[in-house]
């Protein structure tokens, strides 16, 4: 469980605004140290477990896209906040095919595409909704069985087949790094994703640009930026530590 003193709870618009500014400054500094343009890295605030009323404060603090792990939780919040017309939603967690209809209805992007079957289902649902969706393919770079995502060696075959789905705009790759105090072990996950992306781009279907690398969270995003991240998914450093581990909110 995260030490709550590391990430104190943000309870006001001003506290949220300050936390967003602090994280953005850290992103910018990490970019400078890596010799990168800070404009290359997008901050995605991750709002999982926080209720819709609280997220109105995040919107007032400047958030215009929020990341959610559980699609039904995100869908409910989207409905409750439908008066905020320019608030977009990014679904970043594992998705079962029978819940693809929700993502197709409201999400702007999806970071956890991990099978051809899910791609087919999403494409069919998007056709019904007359929408398109930005997607990233999730890669298991840590080798942990507890993590979702495809094995790196399966990525070439999947990417080659995704060009047939006109409703899916394949933008890049996503990973969850090893949860470890060993920074070099964490860094290797990020290096693997970048190198895999570069390899995939050389053989990707014509017109597919794999420009995005979604990697890095509150505890490791500076390492991710050093290795090429273009999207960092930050929750606790903005909103505060969750009181319970994920398993409390979403039992297996």
From TrEMBL:
Domain of life of the native organism: Bacteria
Molecular function terms, GO-annotated: pyridoxal phosphate binding
Matches recorded under InterPro entries: Ala_racemase_N (IPR001608), PLP-binding_barrel (IPR029066), PyrdxlP_homeostasis (IPR011078)
CDD domains the UniProt entry points to: PLPDE_III_YBL036c_like
Any Pfam family: Ala_racemase_N
Function: Pyridoxal 5'-phosphate (PLP)-binding protein, which is involved in PLP homeostasis.
PANTHER family cross-referenced by the UniProt entry: PROLINE SYNTHETASE CO-TRANSCRIBED BACTERIAL HOMOLOG PROTEIN (PTHR10146), PYRIDOXAL PHOSPHATE HOMEOSTASIS PROTEIN (PTHR10146:SF14)
Record HAMAP family: PLP_homeostasis (MF_02087)
Similarity comment text for this entry: Belongs to the pyridoxal phosphate-binding protein YggS/PROSC family.
Name used for this protein in its record: Pyridoxal phosphate homeostasis protein
């Amino acid at each position: 469980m995260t030490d709550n003193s590391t990430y104190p709870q943000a309870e006001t618009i001003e506290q949220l605004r300050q936390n967003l500014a602090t994280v953005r400054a850290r992103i910018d500094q990490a970019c400078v140290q890596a010799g990168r343009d800070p404009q290359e890295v997008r901050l995605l605030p991750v709002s999982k477990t926080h209720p819709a009323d609280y997220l109105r404060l995040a919107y007032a603090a400047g958030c215009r896209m929020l990341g959610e792990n559980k699609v039904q939780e995100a869908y409910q919040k989207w409905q409750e906040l439908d008066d905020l017309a320019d608030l977009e939603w990014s679904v970043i967690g594992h998705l079962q095919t029978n819940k693809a209809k929700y993502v197709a209805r409201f999400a702007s992007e999806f970071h956890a595409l991990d099978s051809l079957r899910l791609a087919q289902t999403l494409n069919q649902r998007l056709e019904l909704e007359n929408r398109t969706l930005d997607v990233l393919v999730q890669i298991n770079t840590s080798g942990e069985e507890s993590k979702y995502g495809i094995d790196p060696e399966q990525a070439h075959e999947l990417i080659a087949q995704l060009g047939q789905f006109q409703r899916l705009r394949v933008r890049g790759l996503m990973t969850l790094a090893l949860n470890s105090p060993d920074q070099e072990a964490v860094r290797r996950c990020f290096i693997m994703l970048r190198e895999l992306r570069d390899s995939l781009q050389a053989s990707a279907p014509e017109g597919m640009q794999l420009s995005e690398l979604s990697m890095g969270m509150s505890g490791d995003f500076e390492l991710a930026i050093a290795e090429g991240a273009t999207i960092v998914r930050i929750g606790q450093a903005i909103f505060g530590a969750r009181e319970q581990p994920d398993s409390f909110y979403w039992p297996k």
